[in-house]
Amino acid sequence: MNAAVADTAAPVEVPAGPTWFGQPRGLTVLFLTQMWEEFSFFGMRALLVYYMTKQLMIGQGKASLIYGAYAALAYFTPIIGGAISDRWLGRKRAVILGGATMAAGHFMMAFPDLFYPALITIALGNGLFLPSLPSQIGSLYADRDPRRGSAYNVYYVGINIGAFLAPLVCGTVGELYGWHWGFTLAGLGMVAGLAIYLAGARYLPPEPVRPIRTKAARAEAALVPKQDLKSTALLLLAVGLMVMVFRGAYEQVGNTIAVWTDSQVDRVVTPGLSVPMTWFQSLNPMLVFLLTPFFVARWTRQAKRGREPSPLVKMAMGAGGVASAYGLLAVVCALAGGGPVHWGWLAAFFVLLTAGELYILPIGLGLFARLAPASLAATTVAAWYLAAFAGNLLAGALGSFWSHTAPAVFFALMAAVATTAGLLLLLLNGPARRVEATRAAAPPIPLAVD
């Protein structure tokens, strides 16, 4: 994943050092911390639309907008939280404070009267937590370490193990025993993640030093071409905009796809046995950790030979895969003529969607983290999540048309949205290769303590 320009890469060797599963030990700590954070986040998300429509009796259109607004806020606050982390708190304190705040918000969700304050609390905690954890990954590796590219895919598996378990545990408990118990379990998951992070702190990289402020250091830093920094910023902005468009389609998974699963998917396996609707939300993360080892192994072999596709080519391929997933649903719904659709087609949709996702979301995260200035790592990673913020707003707006549109037409529209994002990402491949080549040849920016 995320190799530099393929035709300039050279075979390299893995540095020696203590590892777990062939990776630095700190990656396992970050992996497990993120796993439990995602268990809490997706546990709550799996219940959210159903809780609003079935318990709070909010209409589908309004519930879709609330869902989109909450998800967007959760991805907007990292911009502020990342800056706070880089400038004042430091990444480790930001993770701890953010995680504790999120846990409080999940526990608040157990009380209907605290619904809106709870959503805001979770979003605020997420702002500190989300950019500060993955921004520590790059510091675990040397610049030429061939494992560095696939590290974000390994990390992404941790995200999705938590997301896989969440609907099965929180979703099932919420459906069968009460929504408040599902939300409580989500809060306990966040507490578990914090405990792991604190226990494994000795394996994590130190806080990055801040840029020195002396006149001599400023003069030395001025030697770094401003045009290079501008080109990098413009590239990341353009990639973020394309990912925003992509997410307009992708984020329907927890929104209109969940509604469609409940109302128009035949979930009967055998007489008397029907698959709970929240379980289908686990298909995507389950497929992530089943498919990731194959993709990572392939990309690692290609990176060692200098033949790995560039990040933007991968991302364009990923958007195309998601477009094909929605195209499949459009065809199936059209053939069904408004009748119920067998659950096997939904499973096939998730296979295509997940394969595409692995080619775009962890790739994009790695691209932002790798091109980030060392002293602004959390802020730059937060900028990646800004695309998720805007994309979730777009997804919420698009989802509000669900009640007024035939499923086949709606899914065809989502396929068109993802296709558009893929084509635009492909157009950025040339500029991205030039920026990465320039960054690879540039001298490091001088850093020291004040």
CATH topology: Growth Hormone, Chain: A
Trace the largest sheet across and list its strands. Answer: 1-2
End-to-end separation: 36 Å
The number of distinct helices, counting runs of at least 4 residues, comes to: 16
CATH architecture: Up-down Bundle
Number of domains: 1
Question: Which whole number gives the mean pLDDT?
Answer: 82
Poorly predicted segments: 1-14, 445-450
Structural class: mainly alpha
Approximately what portion of the residues adopt beta-strand conformation? under 5%
For the record, the CATH class is Mainly Alpha
**Amount of helix:** over 70%
The CATH superfamily appears as MFS general substrate transporter like domains
Rg is 22 Å
Family: Belongs to the major facilitator superfamily. Proton-dependent oligopeptide transporter (POT/PTR) (TC 2.A.17) family.
Keywords: Cell membrane, Membrane, Peptide transport, Protein transport, Transmembrane, Transmembrane helix, Transport
Protein name: POT family proton-dependent oligopeptide transporter
Membrane topology: Multi-pass membrane protein
